[in-house]
Amino acid sequence: MTQRRRRSRNRGNKAKAQRLIGWLVSYQNDEMGESHEIRSGRTLISSKNGLDGKVIEINEQSIAAPHSAMSASQQHQLVLQDIFSPSGTFLQRSSDKEEQKVDGPIEVHHGDWIRVGEETKFQVCLIDAPHRV
Questions:
Q1: Degrees to nearest 5, angle at CA 60 with 95 and 112
Q2: Tens digits of per-residue pLDDT, 80-92?
Q3: Structural domain of residue 77, as residue ranges?
């Protein structure tokens, strides 16, 4: 398996508080798990870190720059969208065995799996919103 480097970066306005919504967790490079925070607002998944805003950087040949985007609301709703990436973004519901290609904005739920590119998979771990503020 190819070694990949992953980093989460927040380059947005740090003065504006963003609610913690949950995490994306991968077990590919670390069997104990590697997590990336999901905070309210937009987060990009990309092969490059020179983008504005929150970016989860993945060093894999099949990942575009940017590859996909997630939008998280303060009410803990998470929407995923592919950004015309050549290798696609895929969603596997926690209750399904099959992946579906993400062709437009789609709501993601706790326990679902997201695959970007050929190899990178994340499990979605969402926090239950305190009274869904």
A1: 10
A2: 999 999 999 999 9
A3: 6-128
